[in-house]
Specification:
By secondary structure, this protein is mainly beta. The chain is 10% helix and 45% strand. It has an eight-stranded antiparallel beta sheet, covered by helices on one side. A five-stranded mixed beta sheet has the order 5-1-2-10-9, with no helix packed on it. Keywords: Signal.
Length: 468
């Protein structure tokens, strides 16, 4: 009985194994190759009777995509020639019985490819994603042009937006403050509409209370000073644009002739500071009682207050703490003082100036100053939404915003931004504040997609508005 059971089990195993052999996958037959194309990609379709196993790779010099099909056969197929700027042809090669190689020859670099299968009917499909530009241009005023650019790159897609201001246009470029005050924040769109700007971008770095972190000069007056020398944009009375690394120097000369260095303009007063506050800051200094505020009108001290002084219209306040409070302690109401400020002989002639940085291009060459200007990694490193301003050889001013951290646009590194500005024709260019602040407004409409998913309130903006 035991012998009979063993024989029975052996017979069943033989039958099962024979069924496994007969259940082996049927050989796939490559029946037809066809393709479709667009500006973004080329799709090549292999019609088969059964879905085959396959592998794919780029050739060593990246001029071919090689697909190897196993357990596949076909009749001899002619080379498929494509009328496409990226893909040249498709050739099927019988490597050995049951193995075919498809060589897709490329004319230019591609971004990526995706290989997959479809059923009903059965197909193997490869989508070849191209490097391409999709550009839209619009004349938005005399001598004023808007351009949007969508580009597919190996790093991912990029969406860029540019406004080109010709030197002979009916418009001027200038900075504007959020709600006309330093200690405040406002959205770029609102600033553009309020100041009749036909175009605008975000501009300076700023603190949470709206204080400008860097240089800002408006209507010939310095309303914010840089703490260290960083790149700035200057606008002369004739409209000429300057881009350079700028330092601020300020002094107050006391009645005895002593000259005391001013620490800064319109920033929160710190230890041992001598801060200058103007009407652009707020209606009060916001200082505490651990220092002394000297109200100065027409070079004469008109009042002395210990903390949070009112800034009267047309007056300024010198706010001193620590060692500088001691240096000014002899001042009395009625004393004459002389305040001097300079950005250098050339930059003192500017009507407007706005600082940010780092520099991107100098004299038509990439010139990144991230380390020189001591920018932290969140600005200097990695891809991000970016805003930049540049000037061309023939005097056109370019405002540029690039989206980032989103599916439709990966963002740019500072080097990539410099190369893009150079491509647009800039011979000098600088970086402005970026990240969630990056925004462009044209004719009151937000053109880009800020990475926060909404507009961010910022400290100031750079606008293009009709000449007065």
């Amino acid at each position: 009985m035991k012998i009979f059971k063993r024989v029975y089990i052996l017979m069943m195993l033989i039958i099962f194994c024979s069924q496994m052999v007969w259940a082996a996958p049927a050989k796939s037959v490559l029946q037809k190759i066809r393709y479709s194309q667009s500006a973004e990609q080329v799709r090549i379709v292999f019609d088969v009777n059964e879905l085959p196993e396959y592998t794919a790779q780029l050739s060593a010099n990246q001029d071919q995509i090689i697909i190897d099909f196993t357990n596949t056969d076909s009749s001899k197929m002619p080379i498929l020639q494509l009328k496409d700027p990226i893909v040249s042809n498709v050739q099927v090669i019988q490597v050995q019985p049951g193995k075919q190689r498809v060589a897709i020859t490329l004319k230019k670099p591609i971004v990526s490819y995706k290989l997959f299968t479809l059923s009903n009917p059965k197909r193997v499909v490869i989508d070849i994603v191209k490097e391409f530009d999709r550009k839209y241009e619009e004349q938005i005023g005399t001598g004023l042009k808007y351009t949007s650019l969508y580009r597919n790159t190996k790093a991912g897609p990029i969406s860029a937006y540019m406004v080109d201001l010709a030197p002979d246009s009916n418009y001027v470029i200038k900075p504007v403050l959020s709600n006309n005050a330093i200690v405040d924040l406002e959205k770029v769109q609102a600033m553009a509409v309020r100041n009749k700007g036909i175009a605008a971008v975000n501009a300076s770095y700023f603190a949470l209370n709206g204080e400008i972190l860097g240089l800002l000069k408006m209507n010939g007056e310095i309303v914010s000073s840089p703490t260290i020398g960083r790149t700035a944009l200057g606008i002369l009375p004739d409209g000429k644009i300057l881009i350079d690394q700028i330092d601020y120097k300020g002094t107050v000369t006391l009645p005895d002739g002593a000259a005391i260095a001013i620490t800064g303009v319109n920033h929160e007063r710190g230890q041992d500071d001598l801060m200058l506050y103007t009407n652009d800051y707020d209606n009060m200094t916001g200082t505490n009682e651990y220092g002394t505020d000297y109200i100065v009108s027409q070079d004469v001290v008109t009042a002395i207050v210990h903390g949070n002084a009112v800034i009267p219209p047309g007056a300024v306040v010198l706010s001193a703490h620590g060692s500088n409070e001691k240096a000014l302690s002899s001042l009395k109401v009625g004393d004459a003082v002389k305040i001097n400020q300079t950005l250098g002989s050339v930059w003192d002639k500017t009507i407007y100036a706005i600082g940010a940085g780092p520099r991107l291009i100098k004299n038509n060459s990439v010139f990144l100053t991230s380390k020189i200007e001591e920018f932290p990694p969140d600005v200097a490193v990695g891809r991000a939404p970016r805003t930049a301003v540049g000037v061309t050889k023939d005097g056109h001013v370019l405002l540029v915003v690039v989206d980032g951290r989103q599916q439709h646009s990966m963002g740019l590194t500072l080097l990539e931004l410099a190369l893009l500005m150079q491509e647009f024709g800039a011979v000098d260019a600088m970086n402005l504040d970026g990240g969630g602040s990056s925004e462009m407004v044209v004719k009151g409409k937000i053109m880009n997609k800020p990475s926060d998913g909404r507009e961010r309130s910022v400290g100031d903006a750079l606008i293009i508005a009709p000449k007065d």
